[in-house]
Amino acid sequence: MHKFPLMISLACATLVFAQPAVSQQAAPKQMVYPAKGQSPAQQQTDEAQCHTWAVQQSGYDPANPPPVATAQTAPVTGSGARVRGAAAGATVGAIGGNDVGNAAAKGAVAGGVVRRNKNRAAASQQNQAAAQQQQASAASYSNARQVCLQGRGYTVK
Hints:
- The protein is mainly α.
- It is about 65% helix and about 5% strand.
- It has one domain (about 30-155).
- It contains 4 helices and 2 strands; from the N terminus they run αβαααβ.
- About 20% of the residues are buried.
């Protein structure tokens, strides 16, 4: 009988302390070898020019990556989830012969938790999509830089 308030308390604590986890990964370091005997000075010039060209081609600059947009969890207010939960709780309380007001309050809390969990899942999906977009941009930059350096006679791994 007392398990329900404990479960609600644990669910609320989980929601309060949960933070969206989005990592911002840097482009992997490419190793560049001067396959045609280029001097270190020439290699430095070529790498700088290929960096500039790769940024222009990809729209991504690993030295200044755009911030990863993080979606915030939408509030539960206005969704009607608590009202539906209260109605379901009151109905169950009335059928079971229990305190209808107490059952409605528990149902309202449960309805709010369900809606909040759905909102968190939607925000998490948006954050994952943003992180994937960032990773795709970084990969596009790396590919463009590699093509440029290979075109200038370097081996890139």
